[in-house]
Amino acid sequence: MLKNPSEKYRAFPPVSLPDRQWPNRVLTKAPAWCSVDLRDGNQALAVPMNVGQKLELFQTLVRTGFKEIEVGFPSASNTEFTFNRRLIEEGRAPADVWLQVLVQAREDLIERTVESLVGAKRAIIHMYNSTSPAQRRVVFGMTKDQIVKVAVKGAKMIKDRLGRLEGTEVRLQYSPESFSATEVEFAKEITEAVMEVWQPTPERKMILNLPDTVEVAMPNVYADQVEWMCRNVKNRESLIVSMHTHNDRSTGTAATELGLLAGGDRVEGTLFGNGERTGNLDLVTVAMNLYMHGISPGLDFSDLNGIREVYERCTGMTVPPRHPYAGELVFTAFSGSHQDAIKKGLAEWSTGSQKYWDVPYLTIDPNDIGREYHEVIRVNGQSGKGGVAFLLESEFGILLPKEMQREFGPIANNEVDRLGREVSGAELKGMFWREYIERPGLWALEDFRTESGGGAVRCEARLLRNGDAVVVAGEGNGPLAALVHGFGKLGVPRFEIAHYSQHALGEGEEAAAITYIQVKDGEGRVRWGAGVDTNIEMASVRAVLSALNRLA
Ligand code: KIV
Ligand code: ZN
Q1: Which ligand lies nearest to the CA atom of residue 214 in the structure?
Q2: What is the pLDDT of residues 379-391, one digit of tens each?
Q3: Shared-domain flag, residues 405 and 306
């Protein structure tokens, strides 16, 4: 890299708009959406989609609620043309969906494009030519006037052929391609020249698409450009101002959102941001960002996993695990403090005490887009007791007492750390069982019986101590008190039961119970134990022995 990059690079000149209005506005409604997956997204694939794949993705886009879909560049190849024809001839496009097609301002291409649309119910003919200084100089070697003439000629050619689309509701769209790198005054000039030909009206608007073909500036600059156009272009009320951002500086979403504040009405982009170089705008992100502010986006991502699956199958692309909303890991917390906060937040939410979603670390309820709570927390070496407890509870109904979570959390953590990878709920349960339920030790249970009478409970426990049979007999106001008494009589160092709780594991008569017990010895040392049995009393005795074995 250069020590002094200013020798080679310069900042993009800002637009002069001292009274810009967009910073004071807020978004209150969704824009019109146009998916360009099947055109811009498709052009960016190493292996473009075949007709079958395009059809499958098209159907998914329709199901998601897109009413405007750029289906291709029909003059570019037979596949593109055939796809269009199949959509129309096989009646695959619902009547309320606009089929948008892209074409350059060239006669032969316009001919074929119009031909591809015959019989469509609704069609958008999208014409573009490039307008930035670099494109004018390097690619076309044309003056501004010549570039305007190209656009006007193309606009006329399209207008002259509209008679061939009888029965089709047609909308016209113009893109001064590379708009964001174009002088705003020139963008206005060329747009107005095209408008002069197409003569849009407030009742029959045309779409003015403002491509951020390559991001060259910060998103506020794009917003200024959009606001400048909205305020200065003549006959604004006859235009649908559309935005088409790419993501070269990783701010495509920000540019679009600020552009909406600046007056944009419509947004073009792709699912998950597939597109040339660093991609097109990710429509899912912008739509879900509106949703998380309580604004209905008018698109349905209830089954985002399913949409992602179709997208990945059709395009061969993958959605990265950290991709907003859709990534596999975005509703997953590995850090202990996050897990703890999420667990508490979800618990509060489940009580219904909060009107608005306000769960720490989760911008939306994962359930709304078909993700599940149990996906939320996974456990690795960075996790804390909260995540461990959440998985045991949500997957197995094991409700560890809070204090026991503090004991088992670090035990599980050490083990996960040793393994050096994420562990499943089942593996955590295995660790719990090995530590508390099946742990061999000083004491083992053979049999336990009780009888009551005269207000007292007497017990007889047949145990193994280091493999030798012993009988523990005692008396108390309950089975556990009797057992503790019996141990005392046997000369076992004094201990008391500091915590006792129990719940069923599963349902039905045969369901096991799990008991959690904390014992405290004469020196104040405390240990937890747990026992599982179909007999409640036996579960408790096992829990006492588990705690004593851990104390020994
Ligand atoms: O990025 C772009 O400028 C385009 C245009 C054709 C709209 O895709
Ligand atoms: Zn593009």
Answers
A1: 1
A2: 776 777 778 888 8
A3: no
